[in-house]
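Before a colleague's protein record goes any further, I have to sign it off. My question to you is simply how this chain folds and whether the tokens agree. I do not need a full report, just your reasoning and any doubts. This is what I was given:
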Amino acid sequence: MDNKIQVKNTLPPVALDPSVIESLVINGDLSKLNQQQKVMFYNYRCQQADLDPAAKPFDLLRLNGKEVLYANASATQQLCSNRKLSTQITHREKLDDIYVVSARCTGADGRISENQGAVSISGLKGDALANAILKATTKAIRRVVLAHCGLGMLDETETETIPNAQKVQIQEPVSIADLKDDDLVVDTSFEDAPYRIWVPNLDEPYELCPDLASFKQAMFDLCDKIINNTKLTLEEKDAKLHALHTRNSEQVAGLPATERIQFIAKFATIRSANETKKQ
């Protein structure tokens, strides 16, 4: 039996609040946003680029009194994988005390982009010189990938050379898989919705669903987020699925028998897989 789990981004679509858009357009500064708005914008940027926010592809940087998002290694790795991009180094050269690397990115459609990465190697030798050369290579690859994908933002390797730049901690943009009491963005589109998804440690419903079909899809996506979490052990996944079931047991119990069976089976996915494996 093939027990390989395919990981996918199962987050519901994120729509930016007008206040978030206004602040970004007028100020170009994330520091003006509250924590929930920052989380909303983070998830929005991830979905626009088809990135999994659970892998934290962006970080926050404070620069000249403003806060901006920048791409880290996870962003470029996901972009290459999701969009089937290939990269290659086309040229290396030393210009005085500057080491320059040129890189090319080719998409599945044949479109090509080129960019460069440069670092100072003045006075460097041995491991320090080797690391600088590797950094130039990394910078070139990341810059060309971001440019090819139309993401006009700083790369992690560029932030290291910006004076007075400070990294800012941002709360986990998505904590669905861990089911922690973080700043989750609650969907209130359907205030009188008959179906509500509850998660442990959160007093308000995580998501409101107007009908059984959307409730089932949202709940199963939430279960998949736990099942596909590579940071959790099988025991932890099973415990979290059980906690999710318990939190929503009253609502599930009121479903038609055929639907109720499907929900119970979904909550018991890990346990059932383990029992099948033992047999």
